[in-house]
Amino acid sequence: MVVARRLRIAVAQFDPHLGAIEANTDRLLTLHAEATAAGADLLLTPALSVTGFPPEPLLCRPDLLRRREAALERLAAATAGGRPGIVAGAPWRDAPAGSARSAGSPVRGDAPGGTGRDRDGSGSLVGSVFDAAFLLDGGEVRGRRLRHEFPPAALTDERRFLVAGPAPGPLSFRGIRLGLMVGADAASVAVAETLAESGAEILLGMEARPFLGRAATERRIDEAVPPVVESGLPMLVAAGVGGQDGLVFAGGSFALDADRALRWRLPLLREALGITDWVEEGSGWRVLPHPLPSLPAEEALWWEATGTALLGHLRKNGFRGVLLPLSDRPADLLLLLRAVEALGAEAVAALRFAPPAAPENRGEAMARGLGIAVRRRHAGLPGLDPAALEALVLEGEAGAEGRLLLTGRSKTDLALGTGPAAGGFDLLADLLDADLRALVRWRDPEGTLVPETSLATLVPDATDRRLRAMIEGGAGVDAPARDGHEAAEVQRLWRALDRGAYKRRTAPPGLKLGPHAFGHDWRSPITNGSTTAFP
Fold it and tell me: Chain-wide mean pLDDT for the chain?
């Protein structure tokens, strides 16, 4: 009687710390030990799990690649003696033997628009840096495969620093031929067909995709269907998660059977170690089904994403807590609640600018109700801008206490040049006022913390619809008035967008929750006369 082969693959959906290779390796070894205890044969990790993502300019530092080599040796050693293998993600440099650059010489990436190739002092090409997957087993590095495809547009500048490798072939792991697919390869029909034609039995994807909302998360599953259908092979994808600068990585690792059915999935925006079980039948390998987590509402995902971003920024930058200004603004009230729920009241400090005898405002009342000690400052000086003085005081106190100064400027504020100027990180930078209104009503449906009277101070939804069309929909300056706007109102908004360019350039870094965030993905010149005259 033929005994069906079985395989247990653990998936490490975790949040690496960019550049902290030794700490990431320690974390991977802990996850490997947990996978061993769970009876796994293999641990699959996200793309660039050793170095963190996105590395971008760090790839120009020679020590990064040397430290990566030491990390892979430590991870490989953990697979000796029949313990589970590991598929780890890390950059790899192809440096020709005898090249002018020694191992200790700087690695330099091309200028913007370059290809990620390295050059020696004379400018000659001497190697390339790739996004790679490494198969570790039996105490050794058994093989590597290089990323072959890149998306046409991305929120990161990875194409400046990495080059495409050849179309990958499968690697053998304990008698099973695995097709490793790094990054965009996991959505590529051509890569999947190449692997199938080369004898792959299971497709293993490794990703780190920014969170761009509920619809984009569902599209990711849809993108995996054509490679599965065309190759006839099942696919398992390990997705990175966590906050890094202005990005939040989505997680949501998943498995599709060869019949393209979704059989297994991890939650979005949360770290987890998942276990998948595979069995080989007459038609090939299939993944055993597992109960699927429900997909939260859009507002719930926004809330989770802001908490993930805040925790990541705080932990990875070594802040001891946060400092928030207190006011009646809905954005400040929402930030206060988000900070307490993500960090706990003990990590949150709050400050209001008011004389000692001034009556308590809504922000102070909310802070005291959440268990936060409130302090007051009076920063007014004759002849000076109070907002500028308050910004200096906030930044000074946050810096002296080792706290992160949180900013409550919405995307509407950034578009129109309004809102507070101070801040160290803006959790609301990619949410319009209409989004804030929806988020408050989801989180506080009874209006006990943020009443409707406070929400009335936000710009009308109709204005935000117009701004969304301008920023995200590509509406031109001479576009006809729509959504109930008069031509004069359309012109006013365009002029405000232009005038706000300088303030957006000098604003603190902020969270990106979509493909049209201000900064990397949407910007306008500071000096701009296109809206001076309208037809």
Answer: 88
